[in-house]
Fold these 3 entries.
Entry 1:
Amino acid sequence: MDVVAYLVRDAAPNYFASVPIPSSLRGFVDLSAKEWLHLATFSAVVGAGSYFAVKPYYEKYLKEPEDKPMNFDIRMDEPKVADIIDVEDLGENTSFCRCWKSKKWPFCDGSHNAHNKASGDNLGSLKIRRKIPVTVQSSES
């Protein structure tokens, strides 16, 4: 325990006090070659230590996995979520969900708006509009 106490109370503060960190930009010009070497070594050790200390957390929590699923709760018991919708059942304007957050899947309920506001994304729905009115032909001819 004496070794740890010595390192924390005496060795580390003495070493940090010896690091030649200038108090102004002009002070960097006045450093000798030995002081530059000391400062460069200290900076490299601090930088490498910081990198290796943060790297596991970055990879675990911040980096987006490339195989991240998009669908988290819509018909998860099915091997593939696919829908067939007859054109005749569509209205004049129909919006389909592309964010996988809609409670009216496969139709859009505007859930992407909260996602866009929170993340700064610009996701929108797929809108299908009928241009030519469908005419029903009578089979009595």
Entry 2:
Amino acid sequence: MNEFLQTIADFAAGTGIWVYLFIFVGKLMEVTIGTFRLVLINRGLRTIGAVMAMIEIILWLVVASAVLSGFREDWIKGLIYAFSFALGNYLGSLLDERLALGLCSMQVIVTDLDRGDLVCEKLRSCGFAVSTFEIHGRDSEHLMLMMNMKRKRSDEAIDIIEEIAPDAVITLNDVKMQRRGYLTNAARHAYRSIGK
């Protein structure tokens, strides 16, 4: 192990495109993993987050030592390190958005009660659990729909709602934990158009 670390240290002490690329890719991976790790932990996935933390810190040790080795003589290392740190934050949040792990809660206000009933019926036919409340707006009665779902299904639900009630007010929040209740498997429910 010592020989491996010494080889990396010797390589990183140099300058040139390969050292810069090593710093860029290493820091990019480290920060992307770190950003995604925080998201997982905030969603209650602590075990996966802990494993990712170990990978993150190993990468940090290797890459940081590469930058600190000869940084005063080669300031480009620091510049690449800073740029890949910023890009890693962006990619980590993008990864979270793409994977859409965890649960979310959606609240929908439909201003027309009849359209609200249609939205509710369509959502239920597609496997969403929907609770409804009649609420009082400034000028009229509205229908409020409340749902908890897997984050992967939120876009599907929004498409259904906007197809029937394009003026509906939609609020989406992350859910850290849900005990009991009704969640479905997205693979069992195909999106069907309102005309079918």
Entry 3:
Amino acid sequence: MDSVLAVLVGIGLAASCGFRVFVPLLVSSLAANAGYLELADGFQWLGDWPALAAFGVASVVEVGTYYVPWLDNLLDTIASPAGMIAGAVLFAASVTELDPFLHWTLAVIAGGGAAGIVQGGTVVTRVASTASSGGLANFAVSTFELAAGLLFSALAIVVPVVTIVLLIIVIGCMYFVGRTVLRTFFARRVT
């Protein structure tokens, strides 16, 4: 059962990297440093003070740049692959008792995939926001992404099963809202 929970924690943390790349790394570093997150062999550096400081600075810079109009859309092109890599790393770091081949296979597929799916939802939401408001509503989107990154990172460590259910609901809502806004926007442009 511990392996199943560790996998759910890993998927939850990885998916959180789709909202923000460095915030889940910061939360994981804090949790590991405080003893709330057990790290796999070779990933103890994630809970060290230098990593905590680096993730803190990177999180502040990342969050700040997402509040700059149009730069946020450009940052999404970098954040998509970076989020998938961070998701795979966090999955690998949080799952402790698996065969090495299975460990890294799941890290890439489940961790990177979960981050990629969430990142895809945020990209669609930001594009819809930019298309419908000229970027003025992107401030709200950035705030939601920051809150979701923090919330889901913390929840993944504390209640991983609930986190997975909530992530499925949020991802579905993001795609539905984004698709609806884009359809409405393009339908108005055609007529």
